[in-house]
Design goal:
The protein has about 200 residues and is of the alpha+beta class. It contains five helices and six strands; from the N terminus they run H-E-E-E-H-E-H-H-E-E-H. The strands form two sheets. The chain has a four-stranded mixed beta sheet, with helices on both faces. A two-stranded antiparallel ribbon has the order 1-2.
Length: about 200
């Protein structure tokens, strides 16, 4: 009986050692591939045209544009004292109407044309909200042409073959993160062709 008890104890101890050794191996087998697979997937989720970090207008806090991946994005260089400035109203109307379906308008104030955006970020933010009720995301003052062009606008110009020639130039990006088209300042937010293209982009999956 004593010999049987010792044999049983030995077998139990061996089984415990094998179990403890197998657990890390199983975790490694399950966990390592998951980590390796997740990293590339996360990186691939953000398209190149949105893979930029820019300061938010209200407080200069850095914002990754990757947060808009999967949406239809309208990028606009804006100015407070331009003949096209009333387009803010139409842009906000677009955002309110199509936002629930996946459109986001991104405004980038720029002083590149006619020195028509001379204010600081607080002055610009107050003007946009108090004058036109702008609620779509706005970002810090940005150079959109010239030797110090912001990387986002370099990428948009390369993707569309168009650089802004004045304030309120527009770039439309599809849900897949690819540039659809560029629109000159004269194309208003309620332009039928622009709206038709936005509708098509929103319908795409």
């Amino acid at each position: 009986m004593k010999r049987v008890s010792l044999s049983f104890a030995f077998l139990a101890a061996a089984a415990a050692v094998l179990t403890l050794g197998a657990a890390p191996a199983a975790q490694a087998a399950q966990g390592a591939p998951a980590t390796q697979a997740t990293a590339p997937a996360a990186a691939a989720a953000c398209p190149a045209l949105l893979d930029f970090t820019v300061p938010r207008l209200q407080d200069d806090s850095p914002q990754s544009l990757c947060q808009y991946a999967g949406k239809v994005v309208l990028v606009v260089n804006t100015a407070s004292y331009c003949g096209f400035t009333p387009q803010y109203k139409g842009l906000e109307a677009m955002y309110a109407k199509y936002g629930p379906r996946g459109l986001v308008v991104l405004g980038f104030p720029s002083n590149d044309f006619g020195q028509q955006e001379p204010g600081d970020r607080k002055q610009i933010a107050d003007f946009c909200f108090n004058t036109y009720g702008v609620k779509f995301p706005m970002f810090g003052k940005t150079e959109v042409v010239g030797p110090h062009t912001a990387p986002l606008f370099v990428a948009l110009a390369q993707a569309t073959g168009q650089r802004p020639s004045w304030n309120f130039h527009k770039y439309l990006i599809g849900r897949d993160g690819r540039a659809i088209a560029g629109y000159a300042s004269e194309v208003t937010p309620d332009d039928p062709k622009l709206l038709a293209t936005v509708e098509q982009a929103l319908a795409a999956r």
